[in-house]
């Protein structure tokens, strides 16, 4: 298994280290490392510390922060940046932008699971500047060009 350096910024996180909930889980839950509950009013966005920092170090990997489906679907709590991208050279605190896109205030409790982190492979590329592409079946068709049903 790939090892990634993890720094525990808040000692309370020792009891809440991110772990895969099941053998097949893709995501590691990230918690709201707060001292007191905060209320996310509808339409507002708050940057929430996770109490952790990671250094992936290997440019062939990145981490992605995603919403939790239950919070997003039932309570409207998603991410202010929609998706968070953690660069392999980032060493700062892992933060979650919590956005209440719903109609009701949401009280976020200290240490509540707020979002999830996945680690994904990344392919660095270089560009080969061309005037024309080799023709593909799709060509420039997009945005529904293949129909709906
Ligand atoms: O949800 C997020 C998104 C980003 N980050 C951290 C890790 C990431 O490596 C860094 C920069 O993120 P990004 O490149 O998406 O933001 P930017 O607005 O382009 O900032 P920068 O100019 O620092 O790259 O911020 C988080 O902690 N949480
Ligand atoms: Mg950036």
From TrEMBL:
Please list the GO terms describing molecular function: dUTP diphosphatase activity; magnesium ion binding
Boundaries of each dUTPase-like domain copy? 17-147
Q: Does the keyword Protease apply?
A: no
Catalysed transformations (reactions) = dUTP + H2O = dUMP + diphosphate + H(+)
Q: What is its EC number?
A: 3.6.1.23
Q: Which cofactor does it need?
A: Mg(2+)
Pathway noted in the entry? Pyrimidine metabolism; dUMP biosynthesis; dUMP from dCTP (dUTP route): step 2/2
Matching entries from Gene3D superfamilies are given as: 2.70.40.10
Give the record's keywords alphabetically.
Hydrolase, Magnesium, Metal-binding, Nucleotide metabolism
Q: Which residues bind substrate?
A: 68-70, 81, 85-87
Q: Name one GO biological process term.
A: dUTP catabolic process
Q: What class of enzyme is it?
A: hydrolase
Q: Name one Pfam family in it.
A: dUTPase
InterPro entries for this protein? dUTPase, dUTPase-like, dUTPase-like_sf, dUTPase_trimeric
- Supply the HAMAP family for this chain: dUTPase_bact
Family named by the database record: Belongs to the dUTPase family.
Its biological purpose:
This enzyme is involved in nucleotide metabolism: it produces dUMP, the immediate precursor of thymidine nucleotides and it decreases the intracellular concentration of dUTP so that uracil cannot be incorporated into DNA.
Question: What protein does this entry describe?
Answer: Deoxyuridine 5'-triphosphate nucleotidohydrolase
Q: What species is given as this protein's source?
A: Paralcaligenes ureilyticus
